[in-house]
Amino acid sequence: MALKHLILLCFFTSYLKSLTAVSNSSFTFKNFGQNSSFDSVLSLYGGAKVVNDGQSLQLTTGRVIYKNPIKFYSGTPQKLVSFETYFEFSMTSGSRNGDGFVFVVFSGRDDLFDGNGSFGVSNRDGVKFLSVEFDTLMDDKYGDINGNHVGIDLSSFVSLKVVNLSSVDLGLNSDTRLQVWIDYEAGSRRLEVRVNKFGENRPLGPLLFGQIDITKIWPENDGFFVGLSSFNGNSSQIFNLYSWSFKTRQQPDWMHSEPLDPVSFKGKGKEIKVHKENDCVLWIVSALILGVGLGALGSFVGMLMWTVFAKRRPIAPEEYAVKPVVDEKSLSK
Fold it and tell me: How many alpha carbons fall within 13 Å on the CB side of residue 81?
């Protein structure tokens, strides 16, 4: 019993350690009212402004940027940084669709933003960024599939991955309040995007995902920034942001450092190397194997003893019927 409790304690200690890894940067704004502290955390640019008594930010032609730079590696020893973000928004369109908006990750060393570029982001060569676009304008030069799609972009608005939102009964320009979850797992280098109507649950599976290695995009580890940027061009499109949260976390020690997408291994015909886990996990596995082995051995010995002793019966001499003694004298009378 003590061994069982020790194993459970070691397992939950490792699990809770991963959950309580120090968060490098985080914020949560459920509204942007005058009493909130968003001015010390977020910066507004262009035409971005607080509207509806702080109930929302209007980013029709503007952007909101998190002020603090985020390192790709953090802690001692240094570990990769993962992040997750969540926001709620709605968009309406008048006579002509605008570009929509993007969630963008960029380096402070790059002059990323240009008021005349798509989504307000510069199209100059050499500018590096990672973005998730919520595109409401079909642009042939980028190979857009329609004016209602979500795409993952890497330093170009020719998307690496794209999905038609109409296929899941969602519309960006429908004035419907939508919610978005974007997760980047540093261990697997996997970016996942989920979208659903406001009030609905977070989808179990991602709407789309892509393998992105941020450390190869910005190897200097000078830090990156995150923000939301919108540009409506000459349209009357309005983009409202109702809430926004962001959180980073360190990569747990036990997390696999290779891509977790099974498709990436298909057809390669190579042996998949198994990386060593931490000592606690190895100890747990070893203890479980030892416990199973000892249990099997104990069962075998018990069955053997039962076979040898329990089924044996004591050997007793066979009882013969006692023959009566005949008195010959009585017979002769």
Answer: 23
Cross-strand bridge partners of residue 182: 85, 193
Which residue is it, tokens 């991955």? 161
Amino acid letter, 214: I
Helix (H) or strand (E) holding 145: none
Residues 6+ apart with CB under 8 A from 274: none
**8 A C-beta contact, residue 183 and residue 202:** no
Q: Where are the domains of the chain?
A: 23-251
Kindly give the pairing relationship between strand 190-197 and strand 208-211. Answer: antiparallel
Residue with tokens 């933003």: 113
Residue 136's closest CA among 242, 231, 241? 231
Instruction: Work out the angle at residue 235's Cα, subtended by the Cα atoms of residues 230 and 241, and round it to the nearest 5 degrees.
Output: 35
Which 3-state string (H, E, C) describes 2-64? HHHHHHHHHHHHHHHHHHCCCCCCEEEECCCCCCCCHHHCEEEEECCEEEHHHCEEECCCEEE
Q: What are 105-134's pLDDT values in tens digits?
A: 998 765 788 666 789 888 777 788 999 999
Look at domain 23-251 and name its CATH class.
mainly beta
Q: CA 149 to CA 151: how far, in whole Å?
A: 7
Q: Are 142 and 124 in contact (CB under 8 A)?
A: no
pTM flag (> 0.85): no
**Mean pLDDT lowest among 3-17, 81-95, 252-266, 272-286:** 252-266
CB 27 within 8 A of CB 3: no
- Ordered DSSP codes for 57-85: EE-TTEEEEESS-B-SEETTTTEEEEEEE
Residues 217 and 101: beta-carbon distance below 8 Å: no
- Taking the chain, what is the end-to-end CA distance rounded to the nearest angstrom? 86
CA 99, 104, 109: angle at the middle one, nearest 5? 120
